[in-house]
Amino acid sequence: MADQVQGLDAAAFRSALARFPAGVTIVTTRSAGGTPHGFTASSFAALSLDPPLVLVCLDQGADCFPAFIAAEQFVVNIVTPAHAKLAMKFATKGEDKFAHGSFESDEGGHPILPDAAAVIRCELEQVVPGGDHVILIGRVHEARIGSGKPVMWYRGDFLYLGQSVT
Questions:
Q1: 105-132 pLDDT, tens per residue?
Q2: Interior angle at CA 64, CA 59 and CA 6, nearest 5
Q3: Which end of the chain is more exposed for a tag (fewer CB within 10 A), N or C?
Q4: CATH code for the domain defined by 23-155
Q5: Which superkingdom, per the lineage (predicted)?
């Protein structure tokens, strides 16, 4: 990333954004040929209750970008502390992401984490450009609740619920 972005100090911008705790998700899909794809995202949010819509942001430079743009469906797995190392692998380019973790397949063959804090299955509704990312808008078809607590990303590291911040 450049030191300056349109007159903005890029390092200061990244540091400011890091002060906002965000949930951590592993977003998955499969290609038409059945190959699983996924990425870690902390830019995830509810968009609408009626209709039920969520959004997640994907870097256009991600290895899995073409697979998600072509996908009809995707799954958002809300990460627990047990998935922290796995989330780091899914955030790394070139990593064999599905060699780790205990994924199962949903009815459509999409990878899910059965022990996630929640699993949200979506139909890809719209792809909206957003700078160096795209915003994937998904219509929620199913939401499963797990028993684990979610983990957050804060100041470049994982933050666990109940953990004090210094």
A1: 998 899 999 999 999 999 999 999 999 9
A2: 15
A3: C
A4: 2.30.110.10
A5: Bacteria
